[in-house]
Amino acid sequence: MMNGRSYVRNFKSVLKSICYLSKELIIPVSFVEVAPEIQFNPRYNYFFKDCVEAIKDEQIPYHGGKLEPTINVLCCCSFGMKFIFVMVGWKGTTNDLRVILEMIQNLDNHFLIPPKAKYYLADSGYTNIPSFLSPYHGERYQLCDYRGQQTPHGPKELFNYTHS
């Protein structure tokens, strides 16, 4: 059984290896092409024809010494469910906006900002900022919120339902 320090050392070593391999396995997005999952689906094309990819933030727990710390993992996926960008390393308690600003501002991340009028679809943890479109706050968003009801009420709920 490993002690806390060797666990963290091994975790960091594996994480560095994954980040190194990610340059080979994670393919950047093309801002020119519309994802076929959107382009050929009239249900999504109307709302998201200028969306380039989706960004989701997950807090994944791992066991440390006495406590259970978490770490933020920001993933950017194509609509074909392939990773195109991954950023790891912020504490789980870090605000999502701070993580996304780090992703954009730190040139070492090699994150591609879409051209004007194109955007990434972001989950409800993010706020709307240029190049990132999140759902309306204060409206139903999760698919499970719509169970038992026929249709979304109003344009904002319809957008959130389609977004989710």
From TrEMBL:
GO terms for molecular function: hydrolase activity; metal ion binding; nuclease activity. This is DDE Tnp4 domain-containing protein. Its main location: nucleus. Residues 61-163 form the DDE Tnp4 domain. It is found in: Nucleus. Pfam families: DDE_Tnp_4. Its cofactor is a divalent metal cation. InterPro entries: HARBI1-like, HARBI1_dom. PANTHER family: OS11G0202600 PROTEIN, PTHR22930. It comes from Glycine max (Soybean). GO terms for cellular component: nucleus. Belongs to the HARBI1 family. It comes from the Eukaryota. Keywords: Hydrolase, Metal-binding, Nuclease, Nucleus.
